[in-house]
Each structure stands twice: as structure tokens, then as C-alpha cells.
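> example.struct
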């Protein structure tokens, strides 16, 4: 169990030790189907990342068999099997099948409260990539925004996930024909823009960021100027188009 969980965490954080840790987890062939499922899925994701498609497919198929044969289909852990199968199908060019598997993973996870967010983020990023390839940029952008919200709240160790998200965002922006800003938003301006999505007043945003209301006002004006808008709603809408939200 420790090898499976640790290896999957290393994979998410981009640590090269993930390969050896997950290999050990797979080779132990532990009797517990849930633990074996996690190890196999982590190994499949790594194999797919390394271009070892045959191995990734074999590990994903075994994970699906474990989920099907042990009555795990409706449990949250089974979503990993759907995710890795989706990843393999995407690499095979079977995009509609990949989309179906990844959507099933997200549907199942959303039925359960209190789950770890990381497998959900993985599924969100993978599904967004498939949707981008299918030309569904609007939904892809929405999924990336959902994943980004998690990474903002839980930034510790998420550098690799953020890098993957940003790389996909650039690809999505290019596919949509969206041009970059002549003057990019600063980090603080981006943070303010994200808070403008909600119902917080300027004063409440200032308190949340430990800034003065005047400073938030200055940031807001700069955001409007750089985005070429004049209202809060328009700024949020433009930010989504540019992949900033």
C-alpha cells in the first residue's frame, strides 16, 4: 500500500523515483485488489508518459480486469483504471473512447465526497487534452479552470502539475487562435482576476489578500487596461478566453 501510494504521489510531482517505486509496487502482486489497482494504474501512466504504449496498455487492461472482477466498478479507486485506459486510448488515436473513459472517471469521483483531489486533477487534465484534440476548446478550458482552482488552493508539490496544465493551456490557446496579451498580467493581478470571478467585493478581496482596498483598485484598473475591458464581468470572460482562469 505504501509503495503504491508513494509511487503515485511521486508520479504526480514529477519525481523520477516514481518509476522504481511503482515497479516494486506492481511486482509485489499483493492480494489486496485496491492496492494492486493503484500500483498498476500508476505504472500505466508512467509507461504511457515514456512512450511504452504496449506496456501501458497491458497494465491498464490488468487494472480494468481487477476492477471488473472484484466488484470495484462503483468505487472511487476504480476511476484510476478508467483514467489510465483513457490515456492509452488517446495515445492510440481513439479519442472518442478516451473521452468516454475519462468522463466516466470524473462522473464516478464526483459522486463521492471527501476524496483526494489528485486523481481528479489527473483526470481533468487528461480529459482536457482529449477535448482539445477534438476541437472542443470551450469545455477543455472549463476543465483546466477547475484543475487550476485545486492547484491554487493546494500548491504544495504541484509544480509539475502546474507545468502540465500551463503547457496544455498554451496548446489550447494556439488551437483557438487566441493571441497573447501585449502586456501580460502580473502574478498578483492574475490572483485578483481569479477572485473577481466570485461575489467578493473589492474590500473583501483586499482583506483576503491582506492588501489595502486602494491597492486592489489599482490592480483591477491594470487588469481592465491589459485585457481591454471596462467591467468585472468582461474581465472574467476575457480571462477565460485567454486561459487565465
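> example.seq
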Amino acid at each position: 500500500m505504501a509503495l503504491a501510494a508513494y509511487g503515485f504521489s511521486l508520479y504526480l510531482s514529477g519525481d523520477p523515483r516514481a518509476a522504481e517505486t511503482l515497479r516494486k509496487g506492481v511486482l509485489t502482486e499483493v492480494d489486496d485488489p485496491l492496492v494492486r489497482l493503484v500500483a498498476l494504474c500508476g505504472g500505466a501512466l508512467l509507461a504511457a508518459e515514456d512512450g511504452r504504449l504496449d506496456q501501458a496498455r497491458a497494465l491498464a487492461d490488468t487494472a480494468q480486469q481487477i476492477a471488473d472482477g472484484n466488484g470495484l466498478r462503483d468505487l472511487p479507486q476504480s476511476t484510476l483504471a478508467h483514467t489510465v485506459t483513457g490515456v492509452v486510448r488517446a495515445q492510440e488515436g481513439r479519442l472518442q473512447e478516451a473521452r468516454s473513459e475519462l468522463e466516466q472517471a470524473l462522473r464516478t469521483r464526483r459522486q463521492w465526497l471527501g476524496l483526494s483531489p489528485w486523481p481528479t486533477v489527473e483526470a481533468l487534465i487528461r480529459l482536457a487534452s482529449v477535448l482539445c484534440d477534438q476541437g472542443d476548446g470551450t469545455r477543455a478550458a472549463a476543465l483546466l479552470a477547475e484543475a487550476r482552482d485545486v492547484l491554487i488552493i493546494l500548491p504544495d508539490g504541484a509544480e509539475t502539475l502546474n507545468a502540465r496544465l500551463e503547457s496544455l493551456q498554451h496548446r489550447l490557446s494556439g488551437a483557438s487562435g487566441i493571441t497573447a496579451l501585449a502586456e501580460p498580467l502580473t502574478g498578483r493581478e492574475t490572483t485578483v482576476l481569479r477572485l473577481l470571478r466570485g461575489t467578493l467585493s473589492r474590500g473583501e478581496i483586499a482583506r483576503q489578500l491582506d492588501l489595502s482596498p486602494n491597492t486592489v483598485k489599482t490592480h483591477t484598473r491594470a487588469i481592465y487596461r491589459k485585457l481591454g475591458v471596462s467591467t468585472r464581468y468582461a474581465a472574467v470572460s476575457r480571462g477565460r478566453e485567454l486561459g487565465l482562469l
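> remarks
The chain has a mean pLDDT of 87.
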